[in-house]
Amino acid sequence: MNKLSIVINDQAKEIQVKEYKGQRVVTLAEIDELHKRSSGTAKRNFTSNKRHFVEGEDYFIVTPIQKDEIRTLEIPNRGLTLITESGYLMLVKSFQDELAWSVQRQLVKYYFKAKEKIFDTSQLSPELQMFDGLFKAIAKTELATHQLSEEIKATNDKVDNVSNILALNPTEWRKKINAIINKIANFRGGFEAYQDVRNESYQLLEDRAKCQLSVRLINKRRKMALEGAAKSRIDKTNKMDVIADDARLTEIYIAVVKELAIKNDVEVEAS
């Protein structure tokens, strides 16, 4: 079985060489292992952002009936997701720790790029060298045009997304705010980041509004108890209920979450 050894933080790690449709690929489980993330992290990030990935370019789905096309892997009945270099770089862009940078460099330099061969064209005849240079110039121009088109599309999409975020209003605000915070958490690593994002949003609100949500929550629960509210209802009351009670806090909190959405480059659907 062909394996490649890469060095991460002075430690040798072996990765099984896998090629599919002419491209080197890795599995989601391998990404978790190499980046030392909890099992399922890469899969969660991929599933949450799948609309941004192009099948056949950023990833492949291999089924058991395609087993002969990649014999170095066991294919489960549900199929197996294989990630290409472009998909890998998109998937781990939220991994910002020192280990992540080291792993990315090693995989890109020694695993994904290892197939590429550099041919010396200096021994070709002058005529062929001329044609080689001409074709390279044409290809470079076409790639630059394609890249510019993609950048323009990405910019337009981002402008539309920012417009959607800024258009958020107090109508059904709680549902929309929760959806945005979930997306920010997914961008930062999944479910484990959810509470951190929520706490960050509350802290920003408290700093801006000069208030203490925990104190207001205690007071609200005490008032509900005095008014004879059921204990189950009191226990379910949270800081979002406190924010909803105060129009000023609601307005500030919506603004805070809008800023977090733009900062973390998350997409918000139009109302």
Question: What's a concise summary of this model?
Answer:
With 271 residues, this protein is mostly helical. Helices cover 57% and strands 10% of the residues.
Q: Please, could you describe this protein's structure?
A:
This protein has 271 residues and is mainly alpha-helical. It has two domains: 3-115, Roll (Mlu1-box Binding Protein, DNA-binding Domain), CATH 3.10.260; 165-263, no CATH class. It is 57% helix and 10% strand. It is built from eleven helices and seven strands. The chain has helices at 28-34, 41-48, 85-91, 98-112, 126-166, 173-188, 194-209, 213-226, 231-236, 239-245, 247-263; strands spanning 3-8, 11-16, 19-20, 23-24, 26-27, 59-62, 80-83. The strands form three sheets. A three-stranded antiparallel β-sheet has the order 5-7-6. The protein has a two-stranded antiparallel sheet with strand order 1-2. Helix 6 (173-188) crosses helix 7 (194-209), helix 6 packs parallel to helix 11 (247-263) and helix 8 packs across helix 10 (239-245). The longest helix has 41 residues, at 126-166. The N and C termini lie far apart (52 Å).
Describe how the helices and strands are arranged.
Blueprint (H helix, E strand, L loop, with lengths): L2 E6 L2 E6 L2 E2 L2 E2 L1 E2 H7 L6 H8 L10 E4 L17 E4 L1 H7 L6 H15 L13 H41 L6 H16 L5 H16 L3 H14 L4 H6 L2 H7 L1 H17 L8
Antiparallel strand pairs: 1-2, 3-4, 5-7, 6-7
